Automatic annotation (TrEMBL):
It comes from Malassezia globosa (strain ATCC MYA-4612 / CBS 7966) (Dandruff-associated fungus). Pfam families: Helicase_C (PF00271), Rad54_N (PF08658), SNF2-rel_dom (PF00176). Coiled coil: none annotated. This is DNA repair and recombination protein RAD54. Residues 256-434 form the Helicase ATP-binding domain. PANTHER family: DNA EXCISION REPAIR PROTEIN ERCC-6-RELATED, SNF2/RAD54 FAMILY MEMBER. Gene3D superfamilies: P-loop containing nucleotide triphosphate hydrolases, Tandem AAA-ATPase domain. Belongs to the SNF2/RAD54 helicase family. GO terms for molecular function: ATP binding; DNA binding; DNA translocase activity; helicase activity; hydrolase activity, acting on acid anhydrides.
Length: 713
């Protein structure tokens, strides 16, 4: 039926073309149609190019799709479905496109395609890479690269140190030819680490990564040659011999070169030997270098110090390292509490290249409050300036710092041992945990025997045992402690003179002193009834400084009868210099110094009331002065110190509280110092006296005066 319709259409097309050939061009033009004036060739269909009008079309082979659907068709063109019954035959126009009449594609699995079977006699060769042979016919083996085609192989750069170890001012801290450990032991460690990693992967279960499934295991990183670690030449030029020795000691201890299980130490140099500069050199070296080329030893570090030294540490970093100094986050009280916590949180979260401020400088009190934020942060190095604050293992400061996740710990203190061995153990145990065991083990194995051997009534055997235990303890901790005295500075600093000045009490002080000794309070103390001896000593110390420091007449009953003419206790406007022997000597000394020299002086006292007395004296004499005590804001302290150290400043007196600024402050602007009232702890006095005579002092002579009373408190 379809073929007959096509034949009829072709015949009609042929008849129309013959009629057009019989019409003239004029008729085409006048017949109202569109035509041309010249004759036109008759149109011939491409299908009938070589055929006559009666030529029969080529017959196609009949295709039967009944096998695909499972239906049958009769001669009338009606499909017979076994389930639905007879229905009309569907059109097959979409068969050649793979779509049936309902618009559904044929299912590929229902087509019957001829399956190709390979000839079993065909020989299959496994692909192999063509080999290259040399002149002797030997195969040249070459290791294949796992990189994709078109990817350039990275250039193998030989490892090089950051600074040239052969330069003029080079100071080598690590030399691989001398200090490097046996390479076989390192390979053994890598093998054990690899086995441990395999055990962990087996515990994970059957799930494996694609590389393991395909058998493409990453090759182990080869043990690369180590490079020297060299101090930055900018620092190497200014370090003195004892400081170079100190930096080497710090580096060897913190990198485990002394002991693999110990990464801490104590630098106990006396005040003024440059502990800050040595620690800055260590910090800068660990942040920039390591024996493995291109890698640093640490990423972050914390410097914890007294609050008055926070800004000083930040200034020292810039002073010695210049513009390339590592960024420091100095928490000196300038930020609000919310801003501080936000800054510390960002510092704790960042890592790698995101670290902007690798060094945090913070006070002991502030760090104690930040322990929760820093508890899970990996800290490479912890520097504890004036670390004798950690002498009490039960204090909150000690416990907070001990909970930080830090591997390398360095304690800086000019006076590490102040009272007993328990404080010494606390410092050692903080720097190198568990090296001496716990507190009870240390007391059992060392402390008790040493104390028995030093007792006045000890036997010869106990003394011998005590010496042996002391020698054993010293042998264990001496590799991790370094201490040098101020005698080294005699080569580099001006001459220092120390004088002890004995003063007389004023008549008013003598009367009050004797009155107190005859008081019922002292009588009860002598009979062993009283329980406040320290209070009585405190009253006498204040009396020796000046009677105005006492709360008269409450502190001394009956003292009203001893008042000199015109004396009014509690007068805060004027100061009676003649009522104190020490203050009278100090006033004459300051007047003479101001008249004859342009020197500056530091006045140190343990009491803020005494500083109030000095302040009234300076105001009455119109002397320029600065004052630093515990009431001053932290962020203002360093500015005060810088102004005093400026030689162009007019203020020549610095009033200093020994508790707030007796440790770590650098007051080299002055070359004279007066310790007005000594402390109970001699170590505190030593710290205070070292504020002037230290690195950077340029004055030719330095005086340290200590005021005492003969046979008095």
């Amino acid at each position: 039926m379809r073929r007959s319709a096509v034949v009829a259409a072709l015949k009609e097309l042929q008849d129309n073309s013959s009629d057009h050939t019989r019409e003239s061009p004029r008729q085409l033009a006048t017949g109202g149609g569109y035509g041309i004036l010249q004759e036109q060739k008759p149109f011939k269909s491409p299908l009938l190019k070589k055929r006559g009008p009666d030529a029969s079309l080529r017959k196609r082979a009949r295709v039967n799709y009944s096998e695909l659907s499972g239906d049958s068709v009769d001669q009338s063109g009606i499909y017979i479905d076994e389930i639905e019954g007879p229905r009309k035959k569907k059109s097959l126009e979409g068969v050649y496109k793979g779509i049936d009449a309902s618009g559904v594609s044929f299912n590929a699995d229902r087509r019957k395609w001829q399956v190709f079977h390979a000839d079993p006699r065909a020989i299959k060769r496994k692909f192999s890479i063509p080999s290259i042979r040399n002149e002797r016919g030997e195969v040249i083996e070459s290791q294949l690269s796992h990189a994709a085609l078109g990817v350039r192989r990275p250039v193998e750069v030989p490892p090089r140190p950051l600074h040239d170890p052969m330069s003029e001012h080079s100071i080598v801290l690590f030399d691989p030819t001398i200090d490097d450990k046996d390479i076989e032991s390192e390979r053994e460690k890598l093998r054990l680490a690899f086995e441990e990693q395999q055990k962990k992967e087996e515990k994970r279960g059957p799930h494996k990564n694609l590389a393991t499934i395909l058998g493409i295991n990453k090759p182990h990183m080869p043990i690369r040659d180590k490079v020297p670690v060299v101090i930055d030449p900018r620092l190497g030029k200014i370090l003195r011999p004892h400081q170079i020795e100190g930096v080497k000691f710090l580096f060897r201890c913190t990198t485990g070169m002394v002991s693999e299980n110990a990464h801490g130490c104590i630098m106990a140099d006396e005040m003024g030997l440059g502990k800050t500069l040595q620690c800055i050199t260590l910090l800068w070296t660990l942040l920039k270098q390591s024996p493995n080329a291109g890698k640093s030893t640490i990423q972050k570090a914390i410097v914890v110090c007294p609050s008055s030294l926070v800004r000083n540490w930040a200034n020292e970093l810039v002073k010695w390292l210049g513009a390339s100094a590592p960024g420091s986050l100095a928490l000196d009280g300038r930020l609000s509490r919310e801003q501080m916590f936000e800054s510390v949180q960002r510092w704790a979260d960042c890592s790698g290249r995101a670290i902007v401020h690798p060094v945090m400088i913070v006070s002991y009190e502030t760090l104690r409050n930040l322990q929760e934020l820093l508890g899970n942060t990996e800290i490479g190095l912890l520097l504890c300036d004036e670390g004798h604050r950690l002498k009490n293992a039960d204090s909150m400061t000690f416990q907070s710092l001990a909970m930080l996740k830090v591997k390398r710990r360095v304690i800086l203190s000019g006076t590490p041992i102040q009272n007993d061995l328990s404080e010494y153990f606390a410092l050692i145990n903080f720097a190198i945990p568990d090296m001496l065991g716990n507190r009870n083990e240390f007391r059992k194995h060392f402390e008790l025997d040493i104390l028995r051997g030093r007792d006045a009534g000890a036997t010869e055997k106990e003394k011998e045992v005590g010496r042996e235990k002391l020698q054993q303890l010293s042998g264990m901790v001496s590799p991790f402690i370094i201490r040098r005295t101020n005698d080294i500075l005699s080569k580099y600093l001006p001459v220092k003179y120390e004088h002890v000045v004995f003063c007389r009490l004023s008549p008013f002080q003598v009367d009050l002193y004797n009155l107190f000794l005859r008081s019922p309070v002292i009588a009860r103390l002598l009979r062993g009834i009283g329980s406040q001896p320290l209070k009585a000593i405190g009253i006498l110390k204040k009396l020796c400084n000046h009677p105005d420091l006492l709360n008269l007449p409450a502190d001394l009953e009956g003292s009203e009868e001893l008042y000199p003419e015109g004396y009014r206790p509690g007068d805060r406007r004027n100061v009676a210099v003649g009522l104190s022997g020490k203050l009278a000597v100090l006033e004459r000394f300051l007047t003479s110094m101001r008249a004859k020299t342009d020197d500056k002086i530091v006045l140190i006292s343990n009491y803020t009331q005494t500083l109030d007395l000095f302040e009234r004296l300076c105001r009455s004499r119109r002397w320029g002065f600065f004052r630093l005590d515990g009431t001053m804001n932290i962020n203002k302290r360093q500015n005060l110190v810088d102004r005093f150290n400026n030689p162009e400043g007019s203020e020549f007196i610095f009033l200093l509280s020994s508790k707030a600024g007796g440790c770590g402050l650098n007051l080299i602007g002055a070359n004279r110092l007066v310790l007005f009232d000594p402390d109970w702890n001699p170590a505190s006095d030593q710290q205070a006296l070292a504020r002037v005579w230290r690195d950077g002092q340029k004055k030719s002579c330095t005086y340290a005066l200590v005021f005492f009373f003969a046979n008095k408190v």
